[in-house]
């Protein structure tokens, strides 16, 4: 029988603030564990102003407990929770495709309070910038920024890093020398990426698309300068006077991007490799966190610590469940969209009488497809890949919210959607979605509004765009 255990929050940690502790209990056959969610309550991170003229309030130091990267400085790693979550996911994506790859060398983020940093940097002022090294050939570990070229750049790994950064949906700009851009462009083209998409992604290779993300800046041949969107931190930076309820929503959302410390009590003898696989963490990290270098198994009574990096719960949904009357907030429209380039998976709270959602679309559910869970998969990642919500995926596969666990080899049912509008379809043209497209960009390209595109296509706030999908564009 699994036992409920007492969880102690991390002490002396610069990553978490010990304010509100919420305990969520899960059970395995071999062990039981509890997750510590440390909400920031009344200490939120604010990204104020611009990266070249701004400051950072309550910045969070980039975590040091994971493998896969090396930080140059302890003092200059302060940033926003959104950047932390996105960058950790991107690095994990590289290590998933290249399991034995060397660590990524990471340079400066921002100073503890942000602000000017002359003459070292012109930007890095409000917690949204970071300097990333690139991967070298021969799996060579770098301990500084060195000039890269076709002779020493591991183009495949570096492109994998950029691909995973873009997949987070949080990247605003990537600044890197045009000579590096040409190498990456050529490699991506050889891997089957659409030339038109790459032309819109790289500004300095062929066509100069005005909204291209990857751009040339002098002095960036030895590293990439990546600028992220930080929607919740930017929102807090724009509204310095917030009510307690508004502050709590932003705090919960920001906390959801940060790693969570989990304490596990083992119930049955288990091989350490199987144990790490079930937890979804690397064996190397698990041994390092618990000083288990010479141990091959875990035994009953042992207390094991690990850290979760993936966001399985929609932060806005959690916040709204606690404060449904937040819809009366004067900043409700910004809480809903957050940023013109970012669309979040926002769902109404359960059993709420204050929120009414009207739909003009009736959904018909045909036969579901089957998907075999792979190593490293998460419920969030699978739901995002197939354009459905996590709650729908769990419901269709009878996965309990008290035990939201999937294992490699498990077969999941994935819904396929067709929609039929209940009203007459407005005269419209058809557009095929390309990699990197967002509703906001498509709306601007065709001089229309996001709301109109969503309405005519039966899209919801939690709908996800995938390359190859077709949209009707109102005229």
Residues in helix, %: 25-40%
Shape: globular
Mean pLDDT: 75
Query: Beta-sheet strand percentage?
Result: 15-25%
The count of domains is 4
Going by helix content, strand content and strand pairing, the class is alpha+beta
Major sheet description: 4 strands, antiparallel
Q: Radius of gyration, rounded?
A: 23 Å
Give the strand tally: 22
Please report the distance between the alpha carbons of the first and last residues.
62 Å
Q: What is the top-level CATH class of the largest domain?
A: Alpha Beta
Number of helices: 14
**CATH architecture type of the largest domain:** 2-Layer Sandwich
Strand order of the largest sheet: 1-2-13-16
Low-pLDDT residue spans: 1-41, 311-329, 335-366, 419-426
Task: Kindly identify the CATH topology of the largest domain.
Answer: Muramoyl-pentapeptide Carboxypeptidase, domain 2
């Amino acid at each position: 029988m699994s036992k409920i255990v007492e969880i102690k929050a991390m002490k002396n940690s610069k990553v978490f603030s010990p304010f509100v502790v919420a305990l969520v209990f899960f059970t395995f056959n071999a062990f039981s564990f509890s997750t510590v969610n440390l909400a920031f309550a009344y200490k939120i991170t604010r990204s104020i102003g611009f990266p070249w003229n701004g400051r950072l309030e309550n910045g969070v130091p980039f975590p040091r407990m994971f493998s896969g990267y090396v930080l140059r400085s302890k003092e200059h790693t302060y940033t926003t929770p959104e950047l932390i979550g996105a960058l950790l996911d991107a690095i994990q994506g590289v290590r998933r495709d290249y399991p034995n790859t060397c660590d990524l060398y990471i340079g400066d983020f921002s100073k503890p309070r942000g602000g000017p940093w002359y003459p070292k940097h012109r930007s890095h002022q409000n917690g949204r910038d970071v300097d990333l090294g690139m991967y070298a050939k021969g799996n060579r570990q770098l301990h500084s920024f060195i000039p890269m070229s076709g002779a020493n750049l591991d183009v495949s790994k570096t492109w994998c890093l950029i691909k995973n950064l873009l997949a987070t949906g949080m990247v605003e700009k990537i600044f890197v020398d045009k000579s590096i851009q040409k190498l990456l462009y050529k490699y991506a083209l050889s891997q089957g990426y659409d030339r038109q998409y790459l032309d819109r992604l790289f500004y300095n290779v062929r066509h100069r698309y005005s909204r291209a993300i990857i751009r040339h800046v002098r002095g960036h041949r030895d590293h990439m300068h990546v600028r992220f969107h930080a929607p919740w931190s930017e929102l807090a930076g724009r509204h310095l006077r917030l009510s307690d309820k508004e502050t709590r929503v932003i705090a919960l959302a920001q906390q959801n991007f940060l790693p969570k410390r989990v304490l596990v009590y083992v119930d049955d003898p288990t091989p350490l490799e199987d144990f790490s696989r079930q937890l979804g963490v690397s064996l190397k990290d698990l041994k390092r966190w618990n000083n288990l270098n010479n141990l091959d198994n875990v035994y009953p009574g042992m207390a094991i610590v690990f850290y979760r990096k993936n966001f399985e719960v929609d932060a806005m949904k959690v916040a709204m469940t606690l404060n449904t009357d937040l819809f009366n907030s004067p900043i409700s429209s910004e809480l809903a969209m957050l940023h013109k380039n970012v669309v979040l998976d926002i769902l109404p709270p359960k059993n709420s009488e204050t929120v009414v959602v009207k739909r003009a679309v009736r959904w018909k559910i045909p036969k579901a497809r089957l998907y075999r869970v792979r190593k490293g998969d998460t419920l969030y990642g699978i739901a995002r890949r197939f354009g459905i919500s996590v709650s729908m995926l769990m419901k269709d596969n009878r996965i309990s919210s008290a035990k939201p666990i999937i294992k490699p080899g498990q077969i999941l049912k994935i819904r396929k959607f067709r929609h039929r509008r209940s009203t007459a379809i407005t005269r419209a043209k058809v557009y095929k979605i390309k990699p990197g497209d967002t509703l906001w960009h498509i709306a601007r390209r065709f001089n229309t509004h996001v709301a109109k595109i969503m309405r005519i296509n039966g899209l919801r706030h939690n709908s996800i765009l995938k390359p190859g999908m077709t949209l009707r564009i109102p005229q």
